[in-house]
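Risk register update: the risk that structure generation would not scale has been downgraded. Supporting records follow, first protein first.
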Amino acid sequence: MVLPEQSGPDMARQIRKTRPGMKILFMSGYADERIPLDQEGVHFLSKPFTPSVLARRIRGVLDHREN
């Protein structure tokens, strides 16, 4: 969510201009982050998480399931 030059949501909007169907998984340790979860293909994973949770979440996003 926090990047040196722009926010994660801003970067996602830029990516979506050329790749409208791109699936996006935001990760953050901040509970109050503003995430555009109302968009198709936008997902969120809260830190901390284990490698196995990350792998399952990525697989779920790619398979278009919520896990």
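Supporting record for the second protein:
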Amino acid sequence: MQAQGCENSHWHMTYDEAVGGVVTVSSEIGQPIHKIANRGVLLWKDLDNRIFSITNPEKRLKALQSSRQEIISRLNSDYAKPWLAVNSSGVSVDIEDLTYSECLHRLVKLMYVYSQKRRIDESYKKRVIAFANRFRERFEPCSDYDMSESWDPALHLDEFLNCHLGASTELLYLEEVSYFIALCRTRGEKPVNFILRLDNDFETWFKKDSL
């Protein structure tokens, strides 16, 4: 995208709309930040105006839920952090509606760059392995499956899933959902690169690590 930029005298106009390819949004800590007005940032600006500006938690949640399908669709098409809970049929659902296999597949897909054979961040591998180990507590492997230190979820995912019968049909238990959300909130590590829920923490999920 080519951003023309704007004159110093026009900066104040970017608080209301894009000017010269630049628009001002509210950062995670509530401070104005100037960004290139691409699709993702225009979604950010729209949510600042329509959703994040609502201070009452109940009213904000109601506004989120009333625009649920639109927001999820725009996250998937326009934003750097897509909606996590997409099932094997390509349908956006709630995380509770994913099977164990679907959740692990989606995690690896979003956290590993297959074209470059690298993961986005090493802490992401730790999270995927932690969730895979949770698998093993829930499903008995069909053989003495080896998860040594060299085990890589991106390279060995299919054989891992094939060895855990039931993982492709069993929906996530509520205990696993809570565990997974806590795993995604681990402090001191890179924030996750997807959106988990449309809840009162949505602004944090959306804006965290945006730079």
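The two ends are 18 Å apart (CA to CA). On this basis the risk owner (M.S.) recommends closing the item.
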